[in-house]
Amino acid sequence: MVQNYxxxxxxxxxxxxxxxxTPAHEENVRFIHYTWQxxxxxMQTCQGSENNNQGPQKYVERMPNPALSSFTPVDLxxxxxxxxxDSKKSL
Length: 91
Description:
Subcellular location: Cytoplasm, Stress granule; Nucleus
Pfam families: FAM195
Number of strands: 0
Keywords: Cytoplasm, Nucleus
Distance between the termini: 43 Å
Helix content: 40-55%
Radius of gyration: 19 Å
Mean pLDDT: 76
Largest sheet: none
Family: Belongs to the MCRIP family.
Shape: flat
Main location: cytoplasm
Order of helices and strands: HH
């Protein structure tokens, strides 16, 4: 199995202590990443099959919460990139 993931720590030296990532944190991130990738592959595989009762199921609200009607998902990579750019500008 080929493990292809972004390594969070390494040659880059952190600019503050909040950016220090422990090996346990990195292991958790890898676990979540690979598990999510597996679920997404299984969902794509099961989409075309006739028996949709097997494999992962996508959750859909039967009665959506009206308070969440204007909810927009956040791209965390974009937020991090903007925060990094802002911190570099303030130096």
